What we know:
By secondary structure, the chain is of the alpha+beta class. It is built from 4 helices and 6 strands; from the N terminus they run ααβαββαβββ.
Amino acid sequence: FYSKDGRHLGLVGFGRDITERKRHEESLEKASRDKTTFISTISHELRTPLNGIVGLSRMLLDSPLTEEQRKHMQTINVSAITLGNIFNDIIDMDKFDRRKLELLPAPLNFEDFVAEIESISALMAEQKGLRFDLERLSDLPKAIEVDATRLRQVIWNLVSNAMKFTKEGGVVMTVSADVEDDFAT
């Protein structure tokens, strides 16, 4: 600080012990790392057998079955796919928390993608005694450039929520595309 005539008289300083705050920050960072490790480990350990269930149930659905066996196998298949989607959501929430969520656009066979969503959604609706209708409002492009995992998550969450909150009747999903210069939106 200075006098009225501008002479330097001294220095004033303030200090604060932030040791406890630093310990708390380090503890939070460790907890976050531990959570990430746990999520990735448990996801890997659960996803491996889950992929087997999805693959084998799909194979069995393509084989001759009685109507009752087919319904049971469809339930197993849809349940396993749903569980896999939940794992993806948990992993992505963790990535989002750590600001590491990336979009990875790549070519996607859109016709097959829509057919897969329609098939799984119809099975899910049937289990709840609902209808599922997919309306194509325009010709769909054969392929699009998109992060298929993220698109699948968004659509799956929308369809799942629609089914969850629909008590009777059905759910209708509309799909359309605007194609300009071989680029679909």
